[in-house]
# Entry
Amino acid sequence: MPAAVTGCRLGVGVPLSGAWATPANQRRIALLAERLGYHSLWSFSRLLFPLASTEAEWSSEFQPAFHHGVAEPIVTLAQVAAVTERIRLGFSVLNAPFSAPAVLGKQLIELDRVSGGRIDIGLAQGWSQEEFLAAGVPMERRVARTLEYVEVLRRMWEGEVASFKGEFTELPRTLVRPRPVQPRFPLLLGGSTGAAFARAGRLAQGWVSPGFVTRGEIAAAVDGVRAAAERAGRDPAAIRIVVRASVFLGAERPSVRPDGERQLFQGPFEQVVADLGLVRELGASEVFLDFNFDPAIVGPDVESAAALDRVERALTALSPEHSPEQYPGLVPRRTPSGREQHRTTVTGAGSAGR
# Structure
C-alpha cells in the first residue's frame, strides 16, 4: 500500500459547550487560531441533552459537563467565517438524518460561499434515540438514510442541475443556485466500526474520528479507511485522516479502557505533545485540539474567563507558529508569499497545564 499522507496539520475546536462557549469567545478563539498559524477550526453537533434517558451514552459522569448546552454548529461557523480569512472550517460531525438533505445542502453551500470556499463537511448517522425522536426521524436504517442524504448533498454541490429519487427522500429536478466555491463536495465521514471505515474510504475525501480515541483505534481506522480506498481504486495516500484530540491538559491520570489502552491527549503538556507525534506516525493527516470535553474547561463550576485563559495559553504553547520544533512533520500554514509563519518558541510552555 502506498505510504500514508506525509505531514500533519493542526486545528482547533471552536468553543461550543460550557460557559466559555459565547459568540464573543468563539470569534476570539477563531482569530487567535488563525493568527497562531493553525490550519482549521471545527465544530460538532448535539441536538439536545435528555434529562431522563435509558441510553448508556448519556450516563457518563462527564456527559452533563460537555453535552449540556451545545451551540448550533452551522450558525457558529457562519459567524466565525465572517471574522476570519484563511483558516478552514470543519464539522466533526453533523448528524445527517436530522435535516432534510435539500435544506442542509442549501445551508452548507451558502456557508461555503460566505467562507470563500473553506468548509469541510463531516457527516455521521447519529446514535441517540432521543435525538431521532426530537428530529422526527425514525432511527431504524439510519445508515441507509445517511447514504441517500449524502448522495443528494453531493448532487446539489457538484451539479448545477440536480435530482434524486430514493427510499427516504426525493429531490425534483431543480436548478441549484447560487453555486458553492469549492467544485468538489468536501465530504468526511465519521464512525468507529469497520463498516464506517469502509464507507469513508470508498465514498468520502476522508474520515474523522470520534472524540475519545486510543492508539489502537486510530491504527485500525487508518488501516481500514485506506484499505477500502485501495479496493475502490482510489489513492489511499490521498484520503484524509482527521483526528479529534479531546484534550484534558494537566489531567493527573488518563482514562484507561478495559483492554488496558489509554485515551490519548490526556495528561501533562509533554504527554499531549507526544500523542500528537504518535498519531502523525500512525498516519493522521490532521489533528484538531478540542477542549470542549475537558471538565476543567466546560465543568458547571468553571467560569468563562478562567476557561478562556487556560485554552488561550494552551493554544499558544501548542501552536505550530510558536513551537514548530516540537512537532516534526507538522505542516505550518504559509503566508501568501510562501514563507512559513513560524516565529519563536514560547517560553514556559508547560505552564499551559496549570
Q: What stands out?
A: The CA atoms of residues 194 and 220 lie 8 Å apart.
